[in-house]
Amino acid sequence: MAAAVTREIREELGISIEPSLLLCVVDQIDRQAGQHWVAPVYLIERYDGTPSVLEPQALSAMRWFDLDNLPEPLTEATRQAASALRRRTLLN
Description:
alpha+beta, 92 residues, NUDIX hydrolase, two-stranded antiparallel ribbon, Nucleoside Triphosphate Pyrophosphohydrolase, NUDIX_hydrolase-like_dom_sf
């Protein structure tokens, strides 16, 4: 899974990452859209390169946000990832 995430980030943002910890796995079912997907969410503590939008049709609104000031609406995967990161931060 980490290899797929690393490849996707390189394709979409043009940066190299090294996933250091699996934060959570989001199992999301969207009955209305007839979709089911599983999203592994990794902690990335550093990256190489300058992030840029390489898939503008999918990422045109990409921005950096503080964890405690995320915009709405959020995807379910983003909600669960933020929650897992907050829990990890509280434990450390």
